[in-house]
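Sharing in case it's useful to others searching the archive later.

Someone asked me privately for the predicted structure of PTS trehalose transporter subunit IIBC, so I'm posting the question and my answer publicly. Question first, with the sequence:
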Amino acid sequence: MKSKIMKFFSDLGRSLMMPVAALAACGIILGITSALLKTQVQDAVPFLTASVPLFIITTLNKVSGIVFTLLPVLFAISIAFGLAKEDKGVAAFAGFIGYYTFLVASSCMISTGIMDFSAMKISNILGVDTVDMGALAGIMAGLVTAKLHNKYHKVQFPAAIAFYGGKRFVALVVLVSMTVIGLVMPLIWAPISVGIDGLGRIIRSSGAFGVFIFGTLERLLIPTGLHHVLNSLFRTTAIGGTYHGVEGCLNIFLQFLDQAPLSDMKPYTQFLGQGKMPYMLFGLPAAALAIYRTTPQDKKAKVKALMIAGVAACFVSGITEPLEFSFMFIAPALFVFHAIMGGISFMLMSLLGVIVGNTGGGFIDFLLWGVFQPGSHWYWVIVVGIPYAFIYYFVFKWYLSRKKIVVSVSDDDDSDAKSDEKTNEGKKSGSNKTALQVIAGLGGMANIVVVNNCISRLRVDVKDMSLIDEETLKKTGSLGIVKTSDTHIQVVYGPKVEKIADAVRAALNDKDCAAEVEKVRDEKPKSTVIISSPMTGLAENLSKAPDEAFANKLMGDGAVVTPKDGTVVAPDDGTVLFVFDKKHAIGFATDSGVSMIIHVGIDTVKLDGKGFDVKVETGAHVNKGDVLMQLDLDFLRENAPSIASPVICTELKENQSIRLINEGEIKAGEPLFAIDTY
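And my answer, the predicted structure tokens:
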């Protein structure tokens, strides 16, 4: 049940992104034209008052502004389209029919005079005088349409009435259903609207604390994608406020920007882009610098490219996920810190009286809605942002250095853009190497139900989550992987996701690609080296190591063994490369050329060599099974955080991967993992 709920809200958030993206684009045009219509700007640039430029600016201003009055119908269409499993165009058409039917049916009920409807807001919507539920009416119509479409779009009738089956029946059943809902809604909407208004008042009456909670949740929900739902509720419904009959903080701001004093917009912009600007323009770029500075020299070039791309997306357009997903999973504590700082940022902007609207928090929005708007108090963004940069930099640098965490970047990242632009010879357009790898990583063509995407994520419904190959997906340039349910996975790619999604969909529709995908999935290793366990104990996947640096494979890949016997032996014939001064770890190279570290316990470096009796010296050649050291397990259990001991390969090549052979009880000398070379 939980996974189904998460999947529903994830899909809903994705569907809401289509009209929200349109609003953001129109908002930029509205912002530019509104700024150009300001008296102060026109006095400075008299050319703008000439008839032709003024006509063009005024027209663009009105055209871009009208989109916000169409938000409910956009929601009805986009939700029906986004939640439909097949025949999405039919669902979108039915979504519009359903919404308009609802408007007319509600109008008919109001015209009966069966009760006093004067307490409700009645507006002319698409030419119909009806109950004004704002964006909620469109959301409801879209949800109902999607549910009915998925249930009935393949229904079959007897031959005599077969014409009305399938896709045609969807429109009929939606029309009837929304007629019933439209007739009933005016009778029950009054108490519902009072409840929604009350919720909005509670949040707003919470003052700065309420804004802090909103800002923190807005970041914490990023991994699930549900932040789109939270933002949409505040931006388009009464939860975000009501002003002269208009609901939703974004709707209010954009519709009344030129009609009301800017100071009146303050209660509404506190839930908009202004709260993001200190960490988008200053905090996260500083964090990216810290990530780069703490990266080992041999990986800096690739991490630098990743950070530059992430900072550009964040700073210019307010797309933060490429940066956030670079550290979200390898350092979750930093992401929690970032979310709390996000809440503080929203709260400070509200307390300092900043009035900068629109949805984004990037530099473009900062200029259009802040610097170009007299009375916006935009300078506080800089005043707060500079300390944010220092705080983010030093916190990230301290934590990453202390935990020895390094952002890992696949070698394939450098070639992703090129491979996305070129198709393989002999295949149809879009069937490129990256797409084939993505499909293979998702478990193959037969495992994929539907592929969608939002601004930064590939969102895929699959049949069997166990078939997902995360390592293959990482090689495609994935910044992160989120499994929101047993059948839904989100693969984070950042701004390039649209290109990848198009290529994947094209490949899925190309039957010739099926064989190529299976080749990727079924690729056999050219050679395999078996590494034996140096200890008797409990063997587990390295990801279960009780230390972030080891679990995230930042120092290498391998396995972890929790010893039950105090003897550590050579895993293969080879040479002792070094013995750490604190005696807690040994560097080892097998005669076959595998470089390894046997690291006994976690944080055992702090024991100053106590509990370890090393039997070999640096440079010694040993045979498999020879004793390397003896452990005082009782002492180690009492004084170390954990005796779980990572056994890792430190210099794997890009065409090599680790495959765990034994998991659970294992004896020293038994096969632990394999190194497959492709």
